[in-house]
Design a protein that fits this description.
The structure holds 2 protein chains of 2 kinds.
Chain A lengths: L4 E3 L2 E4 L5 E6 L6 E7 L6 E7 L2 E5 L7 E4 L6 E5 L8 E8 L8 E2 L3 E5 L1
Parallel strand pairs in A: 2-11
Antiparallel strand pairs in A: 1-3, 3-8, 4-5, 4-9, 5-6, 7-8, 9-10, 9-11
Chain B lengths: L4 E3 L2 E5 L4 E6 L6 E7 L6 E6 L5 E4 L2 E5 L5 E6 L8 E8 L10 E2 L3 E6 L1
Parallel strand pairs in B: 2-11
Antiparallel strand pairs in B: 1-3, 3-8, 4-5, 4-9, 6-7, 7-8, 9-10, 9-11
Classes of the chains: A mainly beta, B mainly beta.
Chain lengths: 114, 114
């Protein structure tokens, strides 16, 4: 199995710009999660999908954030009108409902908003 | 958002020493997980615990699920330089595939002096 992949690994953008990140989960994993991690903190849950359905969104996910998983495979996370407070590592994880269901994380996308 | 209380925040040890770290919560969790994160990378799953009182090993790592279900411990024996990194505990309220959201501690930064 190849692991979870995320692109880009790093993104620097100016305040007010829109950015989009992509996550490709482990093949056949039907659950996909997005987390945000700021410096010195553990990851914080943002949202998750089961197949193509988005089943929960955290309060952290303001209306400037939108996530999609159109075909139940890869997912995108878009941030509109970025703010400096959006600077963080955005982590994607996937899991499979079955014998093993733990979450396996990708390498993350480091966003810096200047 | 809610986070677990993880201690110590950092540890500086000599190669060959044993290490202990712990995680506590005011809420009950039905699954405890331990992850390791290297700089610029995503967390890697080390150990998963599913039953109160459970003691599980993975090589030189041993973790325990506290009897009260409000705490967990991780021990590393005979540390080596590649053990350097940030160790995170994570808790999940649900069991099996019925729940999903992980709550993370702030991490323990481990430095091993060769």
């Amino acid at each position: 199995d190849t692991g979870v992949s995320q692109n880009p690994r790093h993104k620097i953008t100016k305040r007010g710009q829109n950015v989009t990140f992509r996550c490709d989960p482990i093949s056949e994993h039907n659950r996909l999660y997005w987390y945000r991690q700021t410096l010195g903190q553990g990851p914080e849950f943002l949202t998750y999908f089961q197949n193509e359905a988005q089943l929960e969104k955290s309060r952290l996910l303001s209306d400037r954030f939108s996530a999609e998983r159109p075909k139940g495979s890869f997912s995108t996370l878009e941030i509109q009108r970025t703010e400096q407070g959006d600077s963080a590592m955005y982590l994607c994880a996937s899991s499979f409902i079955g014998l093993t269901y733990e979450q396996y994380f990708g390498p993350g996308t480091r966003l810096t908003v200047t | 958002g809610q986070q677990l209380n993880q201690s110590p925040q950092s540890m500086f040890i000599q190669e060959g020493e044993d290490v202990s770290m712990n995680c506590t919560s005011s809420s009950i969790f039905n699954t405890w997980l331990w992850y390791k994160q290297d700089p610029g990378e995503g967390p890697v799953l080390l150990i998963a615990l599913y039953k109160a009182g459970e003691l599980t090993s993975n090589g030189r790592l041993t973790a325990q699920f506290g009897i009260t279900r409000k705490d967990s411990f991780l021990n590393i024996s005979a540390s080596i330089p590649s053990d350097v990194g940030i160790y995170f505990c994570a808790g999940r309220v649900g069991s099996g595939g019925s729940n999903y959201k992980l709550t993370f501690g702030k991490g323990t930064l481990l430095t091993v002096n060769p």
